[in-house]
Amino acid sequence: MFPRMVRGALTRARTGKAMIVLTTALGACVATAMCAVMFDVGDKVNAELKAYGANIVVQPKGAAVLADLYEGANNLAQTTALRENEVPNITNIFWAYNIVDFAPFLTHGVTIQTDDAATSPIEASMTGTWFAKQIASAAGHHTTTGVISLRSWWQIDGGWIADQDTDLALVGATLARQAKIDIGDVIEVDGGNGTQDELQVAGIVHTGGAEDEEILVPLATVQRLAGRPGQVGRVEVAALTTPDNDLARRAARNPESLSVSEMETWYCTAYASSIAYQITEVLTDAVAKPVRQVTESEGSILAKTQLLMLLVTVLSLAAAALAVANLMTASVMERSAEIGLLKAVGARDGSVVGLILAEMGVTGLVGGAIGYGLGLGFAQVIGHAVFGESITARPIVAGLVAVLMCGVVLAGAIPSIRLLTRLRPAEVLHGR
User: Fold this and answer.
1) Region 149-167: what's the mean pLDDT?
2) What's the pTM?
3) Which of 385, 390, 363, 381 is nearest to 27 (CA)?
């Protein structure tokens, strides 16, 4: 009897039922899209921010200690260095797949002489690095990394050079202007250790940073001029990270202060501090530190983005609940004679409430299913429009949206349930 009554209630007043289905579908659509993007936005935002540089810097232990004690102490630590042949070990850490790019750097002071004989020698800094180095991980995966991808915002007049082009150089825009250097010029470089070299300028680089006053060359060139074969001064790493919390901040200060369970949680979460810690495990005498300004900005931007999506979701669901409440209240008022008759023949309030809830449950289920499908499509539109790639549909989104829509349906049912429990059969049947 009860299923037949529900079926009959659903087939009557189809316009009202269609409006409820449409309302719940719109609420479910927005909730699905926002939840799908919110659960996937962390990686997307981090990937976008990685285009603006590294968030972890690795230094030799001696240089890091001196830098902490004395300002500008890098010059005091020229004898300390990292090993270039160990740098690829970064791809073997636990969070290797979160490493987007990395590049080693070695800086050395040089004296340059241009083709213009009237120009006196100029002292400058020369920095060697990887431009597009192909390396293989222990698992056999090949990857290409270097400043071309790590510093993708750099502008080059001319062209990039390759790591094997040890007779070519890039000159910073400021230094090129001061020394009257142009593309194609040949500069004589004196490393100060009895080493000289001639380099042809392949391009002028505009970075907006200290590199505008430097000469950029393949790492091997600086190692030869500085007499430091196989050494690097620092490594910059761009990694996808999870925003720091209290556990990450405590671990960053002293990992040994964590309990065993806390250590496992921290180590197996992609915090900037845990990734930095793992990097020090694969490099000899290295100290890796997150760039706090970058990592804190990432966490702040991500938190605000997720909060905005949460607010949009809450507001859309609240609007859907209000709309459902109005539609159901209007439906109960239209069917007051039918409900009054049911009560008159012995139906209890609980039975009538069950009928209304079953009716709303079916319409809510249909609307929620339609809205969930539309929401997944809407999430992909947002992903491609904002991040240029698709949004991963996580299983948790379906469960969360189902719970949220149940809440919307129940919240929307409260006014109509209160109305029908107060309804008196005699008053309704007598037209009062």
Assistant:
1) 91
2) 0.66
3) 363
